[in-house]
Automatic annotation (TrEMBL):
It comes from the Eukaryota. It comes from Rotaria socialis. Residues 72-208, 279-422 form the LamG-like jellyroll fold domain. Keywords: Disulfide bond, Signal. InterPro entries: ConA-like_dom_sf, LamG-like. Pfam families: Laminin_G_3. This is LamG-like jellyroll fold domain-containing protein.
């Protein structure tokens, strides 16, 4: 719907930057300036991200339609990897988003990193973050304006960095939307590095939503006969020799049986980072419990060593107990209760450097390891559900009897944070 020369506020925009400047919804498509390129992989370990070179003044602009965000709530989110951070001049910005009608109060939006901190500017009506950014690291950053409370928020990696009340509202009604540069104050304000999975919604997201956007790596519900990811990174699953069932724990599920029957997701960047916290959770309904791999973590999609990092992180012991493997100096596995066949059981494993690993069965904690620093694979990782593939017999097993899992699976989730006991309980009691 159009009013005058500008577009009414869009409900949702998403630029994946998977070798394209197009909006997923084909409404706000970008045009590159000075030859921006792409590099693979992007944050999610697949696809690509938009690579911008500050020295070449590279950026993207969306000139038509004009995005109208005046007197509204909105959320901008981005995964960013600063190659360098420029801080010589107070106004040498590492720019992410911009829209500028004119350089007067509340009419020039500039969303940038300034002095290595997130900066959310309406021009003279601005919020400065607290966390200092470091080059050559991935960050999730959310810039949120709540019109109802006139509050600006900045979140870094899912957690509130700073907020400011009595702000705005933003009042600019013209000007191109820019990515990687702004029109505010100086020309030397280009981003240097990668931008990925850039999203806009026409409302103020709450803290829980932002935390999920930053830390929910993948969520395969298996509903609608699909391996589509319902998480924010769109890491869709693949698999072989599987079938769908209407008898899932929550709506539909997946059935695995026979040899080489598995589901797989790849591109798990945070899980491949040393000591980064994580949580994996899934509903299982096995037809046999005398051994079998439920989840296998590996640096290669075939799950194998040598020349690969691999670990069966969840499976059955020979006695039918659930077990999770740790990768610490003592390498002591954690086991839970014996699982019943042909019955649904919720299983989750969490890790943090302060708490070590914890095993939960049906929302109840069964054990934990010592605190330790997880020596990860150092590359985007792959999780295979139902099989260890070529990793059987060569990867560290602990008490897990590696082999094919037989039965049903449902509601598979991976988080790049350690969920609390209350959050695990909520997943186990849908």
């Amino acid at each position: 719907m159009w009013t005058g020369s500008y577009c009414q506020t869009a409900v949702r925009i998403f630029w994946s930057f998977d070798n394209t400047l197009q909006d997923l919804y084909n409404n706000f498509n970008g045009v590159g300036s000075n030859g921006p390129t792409y590099t693979s992989p992007g944050y999610n370990g697949a696809g690509a991200c938009l690579w911008l070179n500050q020295a070449s003044s590279q950026s993207v602009s969306i000139t038509s339609p004009i995005l109208n965000i005046t007197y509204t709530s909105f959320t901008f989110e981005v995964w960013l990897y600063p190659n360098t951070l420029y801080n010589g001049n107070p106004y040498t910005d590492n720019s992410i988003f911009g829209q500028c009608q004119q350089q007067v109060v509340d009419q020039c939006l500039h969303i940038v990193i300034r002095s290595q901190k997130a900066y959310f500017g309406f021009f003279g009506d601005d919020l400065v973050g607290n966390q200092a950014f470091t080059p050559k690291q991935w960050y999730h950053v959310a810039y949120i304006y709540d019109y109802s409370t006139q509050t600006q928020f900045v979140y870094v990696n899912g957690y509130l960095d700073n907020s400011r009340s009595s702000a705005g509202p933003y009042q600019g009604i013209s000007g191109a939307l820019t990515i990687g540069t702004t029109s505010a104050q100086v020309s030397n304000n280009f981003f240097d590095g990668c931008l990925d999975s850039v999203a806009y919604v026409s409302r103020a997201k709450n803290a829980s939503e932002v935390l999920d956007d930053a830390t929910l790596v993948a969520y395969l519900s298996f509903d609608s006969n699909s391996l589509l990811d319902s998480g924010p990174l769109l890491i869709n699953g693949t698999g072989t020799n599987y079938s769908y069932t209407s008898s899932g724990r929550v709506n539909a599920g997946i059935s695995l049986s026979g040899n080489a029957s598995y589901i797989q997701i790849t591109g798990l960047t945070r899980i491949g980072t040393n000591s980064w916290p994580y949580t994996v959770a899934v509903w299982i309904n096995p037809t046999k419990i005398s051994g079998g791999t439920i989840m296998h973590l590996s640096s290669l999609i075939d799950g194998a060593q040598p020349n690969a990092w691999c670990l069966p992180i969840m499976g059955f012991t020979s006695m039918g107990q659930i077990a999770i493997n740790s990768w610490n100096s003592s390498n002591v596995p954690i086991t839970g209760s014996i699982v019943q066949v042909n019955s649904w059981t919720h299983v989750a494993a969490t890790y943090s450097s302060s708490n070590g690993e914890r095993l939960y069965v049906n929302g109840i904690q069964y054990g934990s390891s010592v605190a330790y620093n997880f020596a990860a694979g150092g590359v985007p990782m792959t999780i295979t559900l139902g099989s260890s593939l070529l990793g059987t017999g060569v990867c560290n097993t602990g008490t897990i009897q590696m082999g094919q899992y037989n039965g049903l699976l449902d509601e598979f989730r991976v988080y790049a944070r350690e969920l609390s006991a209350a959050e695990i309980s909520a997943l186990a009691n849908p």
